[in-house]
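User: My advisor, Dr. K., asked me to get a structural model of this assembly before our group meeting. I'm new to this, so sorry if the format is off. These are the inputs:
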Amino acid sequence: MLNVPVSFDTSWIQQMTERMQDDGPWDKWEMFKLALEAEEAMAVREFNQLQCLKYLPHLTPFPHQLATAERVLNEMRGRAILADEVGLGKTIEAGLILKEYLVRGLAKKILILVPASLVIQWTKELNQKFGIPAVAQKKEYMWRQHDVVVASIDTAKRDPHRRHVLDIDYDMLIIDEAHKLKNKKTRNYQFVKEIRKKYCLLLTATPIQNEMDELYNLITLLKPGHLGHSSAFSANYVEGKRQAKNNEQLRAELKKVMIRNKRSDGGIQFTNRRVQSVPIELSPEEMALYESVTRFVREQYHSGTGGFNSLALITLQREICSSKEAAFMTLYNMYQRTPEDSPLRAQILELVEMIRRIDTHSKAAKTVELIKQINDKVIIFTEYRATQNYLQKYLHEHGITSVPFRGGFKRSKKDWMTELFQNRAQVLIATEAGGEGINLQFCNQVINYDMPWNPMRVEQRIGRVHRLGQQRDVHIYNLSTTGTIEEHILRLLYEKIDLFEMVIGELDDIVERLNLNQSLEDNLVQIIMESRSVGEMAVKLDNMGEAIRAVQAIRRQTTASKAHEAAGK
Amino acid sequence: MQQPQIRQFVERYLNTFSAHIVETHPDYLTVKLPVEVDKDIGNRPFYWSWVEKMNLPYQPLTLTFAFHPERMPEGLRAEFLHLGASRMQQIFQSAKKHGRFVCMFEKIPGFLPHVGQRRSTPLVPWLGLNLKISLLCDKRRDILLSLGINLHEPRVVQDFVSSLFRLSLTPSIPDYYYTLDRRITLQQAQSMAEQEVYRVLQQEDQQWAEDARTRLEEELAILESYYRELAEREETQTESEKSESPEDGAAESAEQEVLAPPPTPLDCVDTPPEKEALAAPQTSRESVEQPEGPGDARFAGGRILDFLRANGVQTTPREEISQEPWKGSTPAEEYRRRMDELRWQYEPRIEVETINGGLFYLHSQPGSGRML
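Assistant: The format is fine. Below is the predicted structure of the whole assembly, which you can bring to the meeting.
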């Protein structure tokens, strides 16, 4: 028995009756046939088969992208977290899925929320690659006027825009860089929760950055209750903040809402990575400065007498590893904030004076040497703006053209800088935030001027150039200043755990298995800041490296045996 | 539809409008669009309302359509037409718009009446309906059905349109034919068509709908238990909060006071604060709707800016932008919204659209009909 409601369109009766009464006007028989042929060409004959490809003659998606689109359509029913590793083409997957629903006539009103810097890029890609008439939201009327709108989440959440967005029923909502919604207390999160939507795609390369809760919050946006109430989730699946338990069960649950393609899954050919450490000897004055600052940080960190918060001290420690210019402002600010009668003032001033006196730049000099030797486009990554500014000036003095790149740039400026880099300049100097959403595959040389303490960030840096579309092997140069913390970190990441050789995502998995109470980064910070001596720090870092290696070995073994099993079947 | 069919389709479409083909080449064609075509696929609605309202002479658009992406014409601004091209979709839409209703008569080729025989051959009135039946849940499948309904001796045949393709049809009644009268109305014919659709649907596999319902039930169950637990927890939480930290609450309300909009002169006649908060969203809502209505009386001819202003959607004036603090939904509201979303997503339903229809006066017997 048929127990599905059927609705008939009967509007034709009136229209046809009128024409019969007036005996016309009648349409042409040829047009009648064409109309039918058009419907035949457009009709969706299958529930499950992807339809969109016949509408996309220019696009040849990778097999994993097609498989993802099919899974979202058939198994996840249009609500999914797309969590491919960086560089596997999440945008393409989202585009395919969106196109599929558009073609099937199941979606019409679409909202795509992305960071402001990516609005134009998304709009362009949807139009050019997918023939989807997406517009970048600029004016208030556009929410209603256009069916496919790409907007910055920060604009959308503010009135008067918010009211429009929350008034519209969206057939599909797509959110890029969805890890920014990890905190459920933020306005962004609350806002997205309020949007009425039928299908929903959340895109992120890092569904978990620090805590398991982040993933839980994302899933709650997508399908509240899917993992139970948060406390039930914690009880069932969370061991430590970063540590899952009942892994198999959790994995099975996650599989229902999340797709994560990894490079290690194979099937996608990437060029090789060639990693090289570039040792740098500091001049005696530079070394003295480094040691003085480090000593100062350590004393303050342990005694706490200066009243500096530990974050500022950690920052200073990181900065002095990058460049003296980076440390300068922080020291200066510390000086300003210290009471005038404090004996610390003199101490800080002394450090500032040391910076002023030094006129050698060993690291920068080595970089210039390296760039000249490479004699090709180079991207330099640094964590600090002061380092970036200084480097640009330094390179300029040595006849090397460079352009800066920061997350804070407007999209047009980013595009302009990318273009300048591609066509005019030899070097792009990027701060960390400059990483998201830019494709720089035309360059295959990366210099890590300083080393983030968070290994995930190292991955993101490399992911900018080592992605689908990179034609050449990627060369990575890590500047390693002898006798500094950076050297130890690099040894841990590079020699002990082979970070640079790891397929992207492997680290993620390892950290998950490590049973850490805090993130890897926090652990590093703790080791670095709390060790009483260089020796102690080295030992602790070594231990950590050993632990990671052990997990890695187990992991590789199981992966291998699984592959073996699979091959046996 | 492959590229050769795309080209054929476009050519037939343009020919039907007697479009002037400027140039035709194996890889592309250049055409001067007729008015109707320009309006449908030219993407310039503003231009059209402009020339029409201003009574200006119209400049036809000339476009070049290419059919091979790797063999685009040189020195010409051409666009590649393929199934997914938006222009192709517009052409489809235009064909559907101009191919809605026909009235055709069968003409038997070589048929000549005997001498002295006048108006001797009867033609039977048929209603032809092309239907698109869409099975919808979170997915979709379409079934195309072409029905013929005999309006003289009520009965329904399937695959009607293929029978028509075998006949020779003409838009005006040929000599020596006469038409039999229609004994049922279009309304009655529609009911017969509906019965036929139900019959067709009965024979279809119903599994898709059951699956969709099962999914919906499962999801609703998850939702229910989640929000039930949430509600219970909130209760205990707010109680404990009340007893523990009264200062927090005070701080919060103080903050809200700071963020609340200054009362407008109209409202400020002693409205208690809560009422004001309730009234505010409504007033602001009205303010958006007002400017949305186009066709403002301000349009005074001649100036394109005025025209655009009158026909565009305006921006909410700054002073009307709501400055209220953020207020999220309650768990109950959220629950309701989520349930609505799920039903919207999954609930199986069938929509039957009439693609087009026609009156056909036939001499031949189409298809194998089912007598009623």
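One thing worth pointing out at the meeting: Residues 534-568 of chain A form the longest helix (35 residues).

User: Perfect, thanks a lot.
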